[in-house]
Design brief:
This protein has a five-stranded mixed beta sheet. It is globular, with a radius of gyration of 12 Å. β4, α1 and β5 form a beta-alpha-beta unit. It has two helices and five strands, in the order ββββαβα. The longest helix has 16 residues.
Length: about 90
């Protein structure tokens, strides 16, 4: 699955386009070393296909590569991070 990053001065989003539909995970940048994931949106047509999980994993990998931490305000991302103890190096619960 191809996920692209769209960044701006205050945050951005991770976007996956699957079967002509767009899913997103949005974030705001609290500091150079901290982002807040605040929303995950997956169209009904893509539910159950692992798109949200792929976006969450992408966010974790980006945080590791960038050397920052994540605050999970988004209910979906927070639930995923509780299921994945291996993400706790970058997720601040």
């Amino acid at each position: 699955m191809d996920i692209r990053n769209e960044n701006n001065a205050s945050g951005g989003r991770y976007v996956a386009t699957v079967e002509g539909h767009e899913a997103e995970m949005t974030f705001s940048r609290a500091s150079p070393n901290l982002i807040i994931i605040d929303h995950t949106g997956v169209p009904d047509t893509l539910r159950g296909k692992g798109v949200g999980q792929a976006l969450a994993l992408h966010a974790v990998e980006e945080a590791r590569d960038g050397g920052w931490k994540i605050i999970p305000l988004c209910p979906f991302f927070k639930a995923q991070s509780l299921r994945h103890a291996e993400w706790h190096d970058v997720v601040n619960m």
